[in-house]
Please model this.
Amino acid sequence: MLEAMTNQSHDAAAGNSPLPRNATGRAAGWSRRRRLRACPDCDLVVALPPLRPHERADCPRCGHVLVRRHRLPVQRGLAYAVTALIFLAMAVLFPFIGFDVRGIGNTITLTETGSALARYGEPLVAAAVLLGIVILPLAWIAGFIILHTRILRAAVGPPDEFLARALSHIGPWIMADVFLVALLVSLTKISGMATLDIGPAFWAYCAFVLVMVKAQLALDTDWLWFRLAGEPPAPPGIRPGTNAREQDMTGCHVCGLINPVDASGRGHCARCGDRVHTRAPRSLQNTLALLLLAILLYIPANTLPITHTTRFGGEQGSTIIGGVVGFVQAGDIPIAIVIFAASVLVPIGKMLALAWLCLWARRPDLRDPLAGARMYRLVDFIGRWSMVDVFVVAILVALVRAESLMSIVPGPAALAFAAMVITSMIAAMRFDPRLLWETPSPAQRSGHD
Ligand SMILES: [Zn+2]
Ligand SMILES: [Zn+2]
Model:
């Protein structure tokens, strides 16, 4: 790990650095100045050190990873992405899981986990499931392969910048890894009730998830944008070591370049064209409104049944907590802990943490910026894991189909819970962590906000 410099500037290294191969400090005028970045978490302007493969530069103030340099980013990325595409195709085309009770049962494909929900009156939850586990991963892989193949052929143009922006925006919504955990939970839940037949698509999906995670980690955004559009010189007069906002500048969230902004704090990135803001517009209002909506959705998500199970003629609704209790009674304590953590601890912890961060953003006298930055990163990372319970419902509804002997249909809490998870994820994305590092105004310093 290398900490980015805040007070020096000199040539970036050659080798696998994002500088052109022939661009030493003497060859290219702009490269005499070290590349500058505004930390997306704390807004500090820093000078990137020269990086070799497997090295990374962290923000010296908040610890955010600014750049992570990879070895052979095109070749490794393409190898992972093409392998992931093959495994995903196998996972979609072959039989996924078979379910059998006394000779009556059914075999599903992967996409039936979504289509069964639509059939039982939950088209929105079905769309969320299919987007998270198949459609968005497929779009991301296709975009990645097209983009990196064109880079390999040195044939890049404006459509590739669109693809690179799309990869950044799609990435956080890919939930293949969360679905894998949901699969393990679901199979544990029903393994005692019926005979399960694990099909080839199941193993293909497990392999797909592992390779997909590697492909996402292989994406070197800093290097990618350099290859697509070079590195325009930093705005003149910019000083490392102070907040970008105080210099009427801001860092681009897509490609990292520092850009000047107008009097209202807005502008467009000179390299990737995305909109840039010194602070996310109405960040606290939007975060708090979405947080309130998530809290309201959490009430029906927990009080209404998430599934209705018909078994040997009798029908029974089950809430999320009821499901956890069922696992405990059956002795599946690790699964009970996973579901309790994903469905209760993570959502409530996330909402409390976001409310706390909003308070800290408004009250500089109370805040601890470094603790806030760490809390924000944790909230941003764990939020999507709450989708486990929605995926468990999707798998059970599709799979547990044995005519009158046994069936499971989704309950009204499924939609409320999925909406709560997505709303709270957007709430966390709308929160601008740079607010935690702002220099307090004179009114704030004297305690009047
Ligand atoms: Zn920082
Ligand atoms: Zn940009």
